[in-house]
Design goal:
Elements: H1 9-20, H2 26-38, H3 47-62, E1 68-73, E2 79-83, H4 92-109
Antiparallel strand pairs: 1-2
Length: 112
Amino acid sequence: MIESSELSFDDVLKQLESRFGSDMDLQAILFLIGVQELGKGKVKLSKNEKLDVMHIAICTLLEPYGYYKFEGLDAEGWPHWTANEKLPPLKPAQQQTLMKQAIVEYFRVNNY
């Protein structure tokens, strides 16, 4: 196991690729985090639900930065957030960097 203080995005990527196969990209990682946070195990998801799962991941990852606040679960067990503040305008590379940092922090905090 990697020391959590030394965890990098490449370390996370290597861990995930060893478990789920190569060619993991940011979208795939977001989907995995969303499925983990949804906590429903193996279920068949529609295309819209898959997008919702990725939204779950984004909200989960950006909540510690103050961008979202968890509101609770709906009757079907899907989590919901409200936006606290608008994300600053970021260029695509900056968005990717923010998400990578948030993913590393998620894996560090959750001891994955």
